[in-house]
């Protein structure tokens, strides 16, 4: 174990300091496609009984109209976090009629590209901004890509933690805000170094339906007539089959400082890209994308983790970050585990807490441009495509090291963080969560990706048939346990409040949409320009 990690663990283990670890906050955003009983993408609109997707705080849509997104509040406890996510699923199933939630990261059976509906948020300028952004994604990446689903894990430490951990090498006069941002960015650097481990342990999308690829070259193998896969893959969702294009290929911001990260994203949302310039922003009187730049908006940058700050109404995410610093991190690389009713369980959530604590406390040197950052990206891609290959070695500081050996060293360090969390919270749940992952490291067949392929083969079904069967099992379980009347009534009130809020926006946001878009873009001007 490294000296910095040892020292930080010892400091936090003091009785006066352990309570800080109980004030960390967790939140989950979980995506799921709506499908019809046969497993086809639902072409219906978002259920009106669930409220307005533009303004509902818990139930919305992501890119496609059929891609539902469930957003929990923030919780200090994992039990409450997962209970809220289960409650949202129960409420949604009470209003879905015959439709199901596709509990798998790679998409269901999709219709023709032109028939995949883009998420609609109403005719207000704010709603149209969100819709046109998604039109732009369709032109840039294709609509099928807008049907990929995942789990985003939001996490923050108590603000006071960073002052406690301040070291002697810290620059003099550093403000609390800048210290906190610097430490979160250091966490992100370590996450970038070690997140290949998450893909090995939790990747659950080693196969896909051929119709998702729409005839594009892919290099996958066939498993029966209607399934494509890679034999040692862990997460095709996070591979180069996902959101990739030439414009973003050179946009790999290493997380050395918040300022450099923000500046690079600002450059990307400000720099025109020739292919997008050919498309333009308006065609036949209809807006087709928000800009012709490398990124339409900063959220288009697809990364496995993001520094985040809750933005005020109408505020750009980059402005929020630059003005008030990092508030939390959003982990974006977790697949939906198709064997779990809500795609993640409490053990996985606790492991994520221990992993992120390790990333925060472990020494985190700066990345050399084009060096360690590229190595980390290559390790990540290697694991998502062949992480269970026997004898697989990764690149650690320019030298090959067996994945199993490196993973064992990391789990030892993460276990020390889990033990500290258990002393802070009581019990042994975090240690048990790490122990469960040791089994997966020792035996690749215990990983979710291996289990999916093993049971898929045994079933004799296609990817689509097998995934539909799992989704039906979860749907039946939720329908057998409908929401309690008080819970359902609370969500009905929230749905009605969201519809009223959207109607108010539609009544007031009636100005020229082009001027609205120009004003939105202008909110970045002056803040980053030198």
TrEMBL record:
Enzyme class: ligase
Superkingdom to which the source organism belongs: Bacteria
EC annotation from Swiss-Prot or TrEMBL: 6.3.2.2
Pathway participation: Sulfur metabolism; glutathione biosynthesis; glutathione from L-cysteine and L-glutamate: step 1/2
InterPro entries: Gln_synth/guanido_kin_cat_dom, Glu_cys_ligase, Glut_cys_ligase
The UniProt record lists the keyword Transport: no
Keyword ATP-binding: yes
GO molecular function: ligase activity
Residue stretches making up the Glutamate--cysteine ligase domain: 10-379
Catalysis performed (reactions): L-cysteine + L-glutamate + ATP = gamma-L-glutamyl-L-cysteine + ADP + phosphate + H(+)
Family as reported in the entry's similarity comment: Belongs to the glutamate--cysteine ligase type 1 family. Type 1 subfamily.
Name of the protein in its database record: Glutamate--cysteine ligase
Organism, scientific name: Pigmentiphaga soli
Taxonomic lineage of the native organism: Bacteria, Pseudomonadati, Pseudomonadota, Betaproteobacteria, Burkholderiales
């Amino acid at each position: 174990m490294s000296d910095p990690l040892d020292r930080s663990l010892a400091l936090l283990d003091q009785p006066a300091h352990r309570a800080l670890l109980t004030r960390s906050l967790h939140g989950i955003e979980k995506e799921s496609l709506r499908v019809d009983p046969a497993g086809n993408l639902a072409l219906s609109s978002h259920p009106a009984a669930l409220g307005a997707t533009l303004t509902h705080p818990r139930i919305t849509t992501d890119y496609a109209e059929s891609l539902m997104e469930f957003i929990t509040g923030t919780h200090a406890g994992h039990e409450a976090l997962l209970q809220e996510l289960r409650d949202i699923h129960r409420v949604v199933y009470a209003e879905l009629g015959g439709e199901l939630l596709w509990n798998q990261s790679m998409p269901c059976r999709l219709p023709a590209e032109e028939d995949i509906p883009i998420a609609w948020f109403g005719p207000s300028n704010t709603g149209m901004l969100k819709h046109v952004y998604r039109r732009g994604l369709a032109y840039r990446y294709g609509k099928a890509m807008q049907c990929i689903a995942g789990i985003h894990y939001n996490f923050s430490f108590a603000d006071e933690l960073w002052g406690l951990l301040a070291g002697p090498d810290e620059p003099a006069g550093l403000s609390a805000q800048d210290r906190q941002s610097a430490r979160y960015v250091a966490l992100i650097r370590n996450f970038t170094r070690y997140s290949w481990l998450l893909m090995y342990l939790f990747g659950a999308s080693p196969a896909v339906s051929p119709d998702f690829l729409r005839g594009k070259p892919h290099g996958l193998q066939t498993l029966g007539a209607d399934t494509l896969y890679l034999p040692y893959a862990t997460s095709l969702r996070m591979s180069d089959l996902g959101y990739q294009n030439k414009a973003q290929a050179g946009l790999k911001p290493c997380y050395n400082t918040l300022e450099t990260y923000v500046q690079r994203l600002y450059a990307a949302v400000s720099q025109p890209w020739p292919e997008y310039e050919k498309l333009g922003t308006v065609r036949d009187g209809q807006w087709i994308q928000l800009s012709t730049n490398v990124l339409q908006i900063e959220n288009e940058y697809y990364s496995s983790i993001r520094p985040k700050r809750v933005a005020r109404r109408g505020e750009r995410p980059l402005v929020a970050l630059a003005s008030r610093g990092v508030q939390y991190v959003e982990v974006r690389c977790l697949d939906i585990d198709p064997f779990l009713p809500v795609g993640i369980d409490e053990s996985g959530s606790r492991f994520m807490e221990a992993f992120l604590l390790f990333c925060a406390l472990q020494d985190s040197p700066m990345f050399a441009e084009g060096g360690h950052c590229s190595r980390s990206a290559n390790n990540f891609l290697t694991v998502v495509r062949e992480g269970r290959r026997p004898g697989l070695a990764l690149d650690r500081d320019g030298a090959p090291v067996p994945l199993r050996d490196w993973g064992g060293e990391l789990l030892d360090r993460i276990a020390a963080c889990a033990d500290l969390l258990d002393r802070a919270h009581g019990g042994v749940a975090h240690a048990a969560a790490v122990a469960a992952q040791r089994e997966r490291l020792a035996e690749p067949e215990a990983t979710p990706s291996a289990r999916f392929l093993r049971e898929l083969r045994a079933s004799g079904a296609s990817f689509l048939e097998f995934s539909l069967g799992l989704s039906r099992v979860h749907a039946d379980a939720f329908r057998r346990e409908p929401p309690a009347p008080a819970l359902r009534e609370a969500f009905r009130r929230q749905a009605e409040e969201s519809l009223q809020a959207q109607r108010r926006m539609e009544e007031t946001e009636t100005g020229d949409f082009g001027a609205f878009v120009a004003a939105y873009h202008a909110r970045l001007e002056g803040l980053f320009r030198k």
